Fold this protein.
Amino acid sequence: MTALAVVGTPGDRRVDLFAAACTRHGLAAPAVVPWVRVLRGEEIRLEPGALVRIDSPGEDPGADELLRGPGEPSRVGGGARWHAAFTAGMARVREAAGRTPGAVLLADPDEIAVMFDKRLCHARLAAAGVPVPPALPGPVRDYAELRRRMGEARWGRVFVKPAHGSSASGVVALHASGHRVKAVTSADLSGGELYNSLRVRSYEDERDLAVIVDRLAADGLHVERWFPKASIGGRVIDLRVVVVDGTPTHAVVRAGRAPMTNLHLGGVRGDLDAVTAGLGPAGWARALEVCAGAAACFPRSLAVGVDLMIGADWRGLAVAEVNAFGDLLPRLEGLPGGGAEGLDTYDAQVRAILGGYAAGRVHLGRHTVGRVHLGRHAVGPVIRPARPEPGVRGTPGGGPVRRAARKPEGEAGA
């Protein structure tokens, strides 16, 4: 019988949902390797022949302290330290798999590390011709430099993102004209410190905004030109598309009244039929092709979550994020005709594993994307990078931080 192991947090929803999918497919529950043990440098033991899944540390306070250092778990920041510690932990997992006969990783630690660095991820997507919003090159060290660089680029609206953030932690949607500013963010500036909040708020005092950006810049920033998104019923929308073994299998519409559509920040699941109708058959096929192309930039990862933005004109497309752990979409069934009907995101991954995903990666070096067919909207073989859309960059130009409270079921992209 196939032996599976998960590097995760015991009792975390991600671990439990994956284990439940394994059971439904007749597999034994995976052995769990706790992140806290990995991060403490304790011995990692794997069964010979184990297929090893690396999952998110989740909301374990012990893991968070080992990753970011001691402090209030709801604080914003510490992303650079998180990323360094997390990358080192994954290296230890890879070493353990390397010395265990027959053990195989289901995702590549180097690819995960890139997905958790928005600057590197954006550059990789752009180099492959995947449409992404233009971004300011090089480091942005503080608020003064941000405003200067925005002026030089003639950008009045930008998204300021912590390089290693997730779940929209610390993301600032900024509109600036001279000394008049409006910044929308979930970061709560309290007593000179930044904390994550489940409520999106606005700042119009430039002094407050300067404090926020300067604090965020200490861990590195990624700044993109604002991409005006399509809306339905007065809510802006984007898509989270889960791609499993190269095929888009699941999609959820995220709709919100704030620039950030994350479900834990007040966003709601929208109507996918309305989105496919707005795009039309060719536009929907194009959207899936872009998502498959983004996932193809990470060919040694079993599954990724692609955050796709649709332009206000319903023609432009741009990838906002690629999430290594973007499959937490409870009760969401697969797209009609996509081969994962009746399956959730974890079932689809287990089925891919049973279908030889790991063996294909090890022995065949398979880095291609197969045919995608989703209901009445078919997409041909995705064998080349997608062409950039007008107004987006198609050529070369955090780790997650804890939230103030447990968010409702949904995905974790920024």
Q: What stands out?
A: The radius of gyration is 20 Å. The chain is about 30% helix and 25% strand.
